[in-house]
Amino acid sequence: MFTKRNLHALFNAVIAFAMVATAASAFADASRVSVNWAPSDTLSEVKQNPTHRGLLRPEDWMKELGSYIRGRADAQLLPGQRLDVTIDDIKLAGDFEPWHGPNAQDIRFMKDIYPPRIDLHYRLIGADGKTLRESQAKLRDLSYLQNNVVPTDTDPLRYDKHLIATWIKSEFRGDKV
Description:
Elements: H1 4-30, E1 33-37, H2 44-47, H3 58-76, E2 82-91, E3 95-96, E4 108-109, E5 117-125, E6 131-140, H4 158-171
Parallel strand pairs: 1-2
Antiparallel strand pairs: 2-5, 3-4, 5-6
C-alpha cells in the first residue's frame, strides 16, 4: 500500500529520472553536430579588427555562433544523421568606422556595404556512417538589412544568425536527402 510519503518519494524519483533523461538526450543530440573554426588569426573578422573593437571578442562570437549552428542543425537533421561543419572564414554583419571619432570606436555600423559573409565546408553523415553529402558553401546576405529580422531584436549577431538559419533550413530539410 502506498502512503502519501511513499507516493511523494516516487513522484520525486520519476521527476528526477525524467530530468536526467532529458538532459542526456539533449547532450547526445548536441554531439550530432560538430562545429570547428579555422585558426582565429586567419578569419577576416579578426584580421580586419586587430584591436578587437566592439562588445564581442572573437572567442565570444565564435562560441555563440557555434552553439547556434549546433542547435539549428540538430533540429533539421534526420534521426541518426551527423553533421561536421568547419568555418573557414567569417566577416560579421556591419563594420567599424573609426573616422567618426573616438566616441564611435566601438560602434558597429550596419550598412549595405558590410553584409555578413561565411565560408564553410561541411560533411553530412548518415546513420550507417557513410557520407551522404560533402560540400563547400559561401554564405552571403547582400540584402541583410531588408530581411525579416525582428527590428527590436538586440542580439548583436542577429544578422549572422539569420544567414546561418536560412542556409541550414534550405540545405538540411529532411526531405532533401
